[in-house]
Description:
This protein is an alpha+beta fold.
Amino acid sequence: MRHEDMxxxxxxxxxxxxxxxVCSFEYxxxxxxxxxxxxxxQAVQQAGYYAEVEPTGEGGWQLVVFxxxxxxxxxxxxxxxxxxxxxxxxxxxxDGWGVPLG
Length: 102
């Protein structure tokens, strides 16, 4: 797992979220081509995720992937690995995740 993902997990847990609590996660992938972003969205949707494609304002496209799960390192690693593979397969880049802390 990337160092940035480990730091984000520590932040979530230090914010008081229990590792046993199911949370709403948002994962971020970026693409230079809109059609490829939509193909990547279809791939993650076929795997059971909800996803939205949005313009970045810088000429690129952001794919936001939504998932509900516990802030568990093994669960995160499995999902991050999958999304990194999707990003690579469609010429994009995985750029981390977040949990809206309300």
